[in-house]
Design a protein that fits this description.
Blueprint lengths: L15 H13 L14 H13 L3 E5 L2 H11 L7 E5 L5 H8 L3 E5 L9 H11 L3 E5 L8 H11 L3 E4 L7 E2 L2 E2 L6 E5 L12 E5 L2 H10 L18 H7 L9 H11 L2 H20 L13 E2 L4 E5 L5 H13 L5 E2 L24 H8 L1 E5 L6 H23 L1
Parallel strand pairs: 2-3, 2-4, 4-5, 5-8
Antiparallel strand pairs: 1-9, 6-7, 6-10, 8-9, 11-13, 12-13
Helix pairs in contact: 1-9, 2-9, 3-4, 3-7, 5-6, 10-13, 11-13
The chain binds pyridoxal-5'-phosphate.
The site of pyridoxal-5'-phosphate has 15 residues, from helix 3 and helix 4.
């Protein structure tokens, strides 16, 4: 088998129109979001306006990172020291990190083998922990049954914040991911769906919540220079009551993102063509489970996951090593020690240890890979061939 030579961390270059927009900002010298002339909207305010329109939300705040957007959302909701916040047992470290940032305690909820939140465990944990909020992570772009989730949360009066780092552009039953609860949090870090190096977007329809978020982000008294913010009256007391925890986006990043937003829908189609090609190939294999995608879900296939539910630790290790030898980087979440990104709850030692047998069993057989748009469809077919070969071989060996 020919090894694959593409890079799993290589994103597409920033397009010429985005580079031109960035150069214009650099030439102007006005990189700070509030450094505007007259009543022009600067690039950050323009981005907020454009992203709110894309998302279908009333308000949008651009900030420094997805993690900052989540911590700001929790603060703006009034979550603080000692409060309990529900989140997924399987997510990326910035999620429990944002809960820790506000001094709250993460209550981890089990996931299912479709990599979404387990609604039964969720309800049990709502009753047991009396949480102040839920920070749902749409981890690796898998959406749970959002209608069923909202029914559970609403019946217990638990407000929802959505981590949409992997679901920017996704929707459930035609409704955008990030618009189900009080807030949606997005990341524009290099490995997400738009690339400004670092960056975050926070959306909401709630005027007071957004006014608090804007003040928290460090708007001084310049909140009227926002592209999708609430009316000035809403800030009357909030501007004096809310501390400044600077985390503004700058015009340089916003200018790059503004031009990228126009290409997002096309890129979603490109990601899904690549994702589905790999998924269809692996789904056809015995002893491999590819998470189910309900018809209500419009996903963004920027990464691909599959499970080997019956495989031993030894077999899993063989798959990872075998794939790596042929140039394919698979991430395995069952490893003892975190490699690269940390997504196993056992490596979050700042969180009170919690017993998640179901999640642990799923992670033990879960493999994951990025699908950068620099891969052609032929590249993806090659990668799928390698995975199928290595998995088939390891399973055969395991059975022998
Ligand atoms: C990347 C990511 C975030 C936010 O990350 P930042 O690096 O803070 O922008 C949040 N949740 C998940 C699941 C992520 O992968």
């Amino acid at each position: 088998m020919q090894p694959f030579t593409g890079s799993f961390t290589q994103q597409e270059p920033i397009a010429d129109d985005a580079i031109a927009a960035a150069v214009e900002v650099l030439r102007s010298g006005r990189l700070h979001r509030y450094n505007t002339v007259g009543d022009e909207l600067g690039p950050v305010a323009e981005l907020e306006k454009a992203y709110a329109a894309y998302q279908g939300s009333t308000y949008c705040l651009a900030c420094t990172s997805g993690g900052y957007a989540m911590a700001t959302a929790l603060r703006a909701l009034g979550v603080g020291a000692g409060d309990r916040v529900l989140t997924n047992g399987f997510t990326l470290a910035p999620v429990p990190g944002s809960i820790a940032a506000v001094g709250a305690e993460a209550v981890l909820v089990e996931i299912t083998s479709d990599l979404v939140i387990d609604l039964e465990d969720l309800e049990a944990k709502i009753v047991a922990s009396e949480p102040k909020a839920m920070l749902l992570s749409n981890m690796r772009g898998h959406l749970c049954d959002m209608d069923a989730l909202m029914a559970v949360l609403d019946s217990h009066g638990v407000p929802l914040i959505e981590d949409c780092a992997h679901t920017m552009g996704a929707s459930w039953n035609g409704r955008k991911s990030g618009s189900f609860g009080i807030a949606g949090c997005f990341s524009t870090q290099t490995y997400k769906h738009m690339n400004s190096g670092e960056g975050g977007l926070l959306t909401s329809d709630d005027p007071e919540f957004m006014a608090r978020a804007i003040m928290l982000s460090g708007s001084y008294m310049l909140y009227e220079r926002h592209g999708a913010g609430p009316a000035p009256e809403v800030f009357k007391d909030i501007r004096l009551d809310t501390p400044n925890m600077s985390g503004r986006m700058d015009n340089l990043r916003a200018s790059i993102l503004l031009t990228q937003l126009g290409g997002l829908e096309t890129n979603i189609d490109r990601w899904n063509a690549r994702h589905d090609l790999v998924a269809d190939r692996l789904r056809a294999m015995p002893d491999v489970y590819v998470p189910h995608r309900p018809k209500e879900e419009r996903y963004v296939g920027s990464s691909f996951q599959f499970l080997m539910p019956t495989a031993s630790t030894e077999t899993m290790k063989q798959v990872v090593t075998g794939a790596k030898a042929l140039g394919v980087e698979l991430k395995w979440f069952g490893a003892d020690s975190p490699v690269g990104f940390t997504s196993n709850h056992q490596s979050w030692r700042y969180v009170t240890p919690q017993n998640l047998p179901k999640t642990d069993a799923i992670l033990a057989g879960l493999l994951d890979m990025r699908i950068p748009l620099t891969f052609s469809l032929e590249d993806c077919a090659h990668v799928a061939d390698i995975i199928a070969h290595v998995v088939g071989h390891a399973l055969q060996k395991g059975a022998a």
